[in-house]
Amino acid sequence: MNIDTEYFSCECNNFSHTIRFVLDPDDGDLHLEVQLHMWRSWHKRVWDALKYVFKYPVPYGHYDTTILRREDYGRIRDMLKKSELIQALAVERSTALSGDGVPLEYSSRQDKGKQ
Ligand SMILES: [Zn+2]
Q1: pTM for the full model?
Q2: Rounded distance between C-alpha atoms, residue 53 and residue 47, angstroms
Q3: Residue 105 contacts by C-beta under 8 Å, 6 or more apart in sequence?
Q4: pLDDT at residue 110 above 70?
Q5: Rounded to the nearest whole angstrom, what is the distance from the C-alpha of residue 29 to the centroid of ligand 1?
Q6: Distance (Å) from CA 105 to ligand 1 centroid
């Protein structure tokens, strides 16, 4: 399994704004990973966590922002194209029919059951 991983720095160069895209070569899922901001003290973060658990609304939520750099657009575009291609191939495989008119994916599962 060859996992495709790309890191993208923020326009402001703050390392904590770096995001990571991970492409799963098996199903084409594209994961976006970000670091949660930790600029508040630990006891305030615990208090925020409790509010989150009990669904207490927090103004502006717990978001941070990453501004993508223009020079990275092509790399993101490439990852999206790969993800789209892998998923399209998976759909094609699952809908392809075996010789007896049964979808190949279903047919191969039936064959495994016979062994
Ligand atoms: Zn930034």
Answers
A1: 0.63
A2: 10
A3: 93, 94
A4: no
A5: 26
A6: 45
